[in-house]
Amino acid sequence: MKEKIMTVTFTMDEDPHIFGNWTNSSAGSKFNNLSTLLNEDDYQKSNVQSSITVEEYDLISVLCLTILLSFIILATIAGNVFVLIAILRERNLQTLSNYLVFSLAIADLMVACLVMPIGAQYEVMNQEWILGSVMCEIWTSGDVLCCTASILHLVAIAVDRYCAVTNINYVQYRSTRRVGLMIAAVWCVSFIVSFAPILGWKDQEFLLRVQKDKKCLVSQDIGYQIFATCATFYVPLIIILILYWRIYQVVRKRIRHRPGHAIRPAALLPLVCAENVPSMTALNGSAKMISGTKLRQKSRDNLESKRERKAAKTLAIITGVFVMCWLPFFIMALLMAICPDLIPDSRLFSLFLWLGYANSTLNPLIYTVFSPDFKKAFSKLFCGKTYPQRTAPSSRQGCLSTVDTVF
């Protein structure tokens, strides 16, 4: 045993590099392993930190999106509810023209209460539909119904304005029944367009798209899309543009061809529907009394011109807002049906869709800005301010303007 030990000792002494090489190799291997473990640990920590950063970013994005969409929904509800309350409470707002405004506010309120909340949930879930195919059909049909009704009410209002401006006798035969038929026609067309997919007019990939891809879109059948987009937007847009252009022409013609100025307007005191009330006019430097009936027509023409200009301006702004809100979405909707391979960016699709929804938010604001009657009603509603009651003009009174403005 001793000899063997000595041999081993001798061998190690004889070749000391063997031990040294073994020691260096083992130490290097352990060092490399330690470095690898440290690198992997740093990599895992980096991944964890990156994951936390992404999750924080996603959480902030979802929170901001939720706040924005909630604000749009609440603003739409509040604005249209105030319009409805104003019309119901104020007698001077309860005109035949405002029946159309009332029905429009109901359609916009339905958009805010029935369509937007589910749409907001869909957006917050990163456009992943979790409510099933039946609910998808119901929601998309309700979306088309409410939005179509809102758009077609703008057409009805444009038709009403056109008739009031171009036909001086229109206010005499415009009745509750006629306005009611216009409103009924708007809702009937909206129901037909919206419920066609439920009755079977939808593309074959509808169920697969909902169940597998978790995407809820209205029927992408090309025939239905052409029918729906034309009935809902393109035809109404053409009608509105034509009617507005005709209104503009009539208003411009009336302004440029006003009656001759036998008496200068600057010399007249303003008259508003005075029946046999004396008015003062400057004649040869002295004040003389003349009958109000001689000047009533002049005042009526001036008042009519102001109302016509205001009606045309208001209708133009409403039309412009309508086009700005809905045109991008309907262009994209038609392109998606015609070119199935065209897949728009989901964020762009959401932007265009909610821009269209925002039209229901902006309509009440337009009434507030451009209608003195609505301004007074809202001031009374919010601030308790009261104004002298103004009797709505009747078509049988001599002071009626052919354009009784809606807004």
From TrEMBL:
InterPro entries: GPCR_Rhodpsn, GPCR_Rhodpsn_7TM. Gene3D superfamilies: Rhodopsin 7-helix transmembrane proteins (1.20.1070.10). It comes from the Eukaryota. Signal peptide: none annotated. Residues 79-367 form the G-protein coupled receptors family 1 profile domain. It is a multi-pass membrane protein. It is found in: Cell membrane. The chain crosses the membrane at residues 59-87, 99-118, 138-159, 179-202, 222-248, 315-336, 348-370. PROSITE patterns: G_PROTEIN_RECEP_F1_1, G_PROTEIN_RECEP_F1_2. One of its GO terms (molecular function) is G protein-coupled receptor activity. One of its GO terms (cellular component) is plasma membrane. Keywords: Cell membrane, G-protein coupled receptor, Membrane, Receptor, Transducer, Transmembrane, Transmembrane helix. Belongs to the G-protein coupled receptor 1 family. This is 5-hydroxytryptamine receptor. It comes from Trichonephila clavata (Joro spider).
